Structure formats: structure tokens, C-alpha cells
């Protein structure tokens, strides 16, 4: 029988979704921080932000030396299989995941969850 190597380079969440969720979490996040969190170059992160802006998923306004982003409400998934559904639920799920929680994935914004966990 032939040995099949596991494909380990794919993830369930694309960098486009990850960056959009990070922008929703922090509308004034820097490209440098987006890139670092995703393991990308600043150029690649900038290209993703431009993709999202061009497709209407976010707007960007310059405020002084910083960009201020706004995620466009009501936007739909791009793939026809999910195309009738808004991306808001996915984004809010991703925003609620605490990036520092690691494998446990405990939501950082769910105080009730943390309180229940602390008090049994």
C-alpha cells in the first residue's frame, strides 16, 4: 500500500477572513500588525486589504498618520455555495476568539463564559 503524506499547509480560515476579523476588532490596526499576526509580509497584508476594499468588504479613510477601516455591514460570502449568507456571523465568531488563548480558543469577549468557568 502506498503511503500518503498529510497536507499540512492549509487552514480553515483564509488570511482574507482573518484580516477582516482583525480589522473589525481594531479599526485602526496597522498593516505591520496585520502582517505579523498572519505571518505575512506587509506587502501581502496590504494586497489583502486592497482586495477586501475593492470587493466592498471594507472602506479605508486616512486620519492623520493612520488608516481607519470600517467593515461594510451586510456583505455576503463570495462563493456560490454560501453566497446567500452574510459574513457577519463568521467575523463575529473570529473576533470573539482570543488570539492569546491558543488551542483552548476561549472567547475573550464572553465575560459570562469566563465567569461560569471561574465559579464552576
Automatic annotation (TrEMBL):
Q: Where is this region: Disordered?
A: 101-120
SUPFAM superfamilies tied to this protein? Winged helix' DNA-binding domain (SSF46785)
Per UniProt, the ranges with Basic and acidic residues bias are 109-120
Report which superkingdom the organism of origin falls in: Bacteria
Protein name, please? Winged helix-turn-helix domain-containing protein
- Identify the species of origin: Streptomyces yangpuensis
Amino acid at each position: 500500500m502506498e503511503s500518503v503524506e498529510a497536507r499540512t499547509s492549509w487552514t480553515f480560515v483564509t488570511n482574507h477572513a482573518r484580516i477582516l476579523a482583525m480589522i473589525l476588532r481594531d479599526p485602526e490596526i496597522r498593516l505591520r500588525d496585520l502582517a505579523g499576526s498572519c505571518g505575512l509580509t506587509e506587502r501581502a497584508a496590504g494586497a489583502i486589504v486592497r482586495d477586501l476594499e475593492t470587493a466592498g468588504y471594507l472602506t479605508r479613510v486616512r486620519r492623520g498618520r493612520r488608516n481607519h477601516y470600517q467593515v461594510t455591514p451586510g456583505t455576503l460570502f463570495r462563493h456560490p455555495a454560501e453566497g446567500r449568507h452574510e459574513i457577519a456571523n463568521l467575523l463575529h465568531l473570529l473576533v470573539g476568539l482570543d488570539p492569546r488563548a491558543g488551542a483552548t480558543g476561549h472567547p475573550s469577549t464572553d465575560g459570562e463564559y469566563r465567569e461560569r468557568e471561574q465559579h464552576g
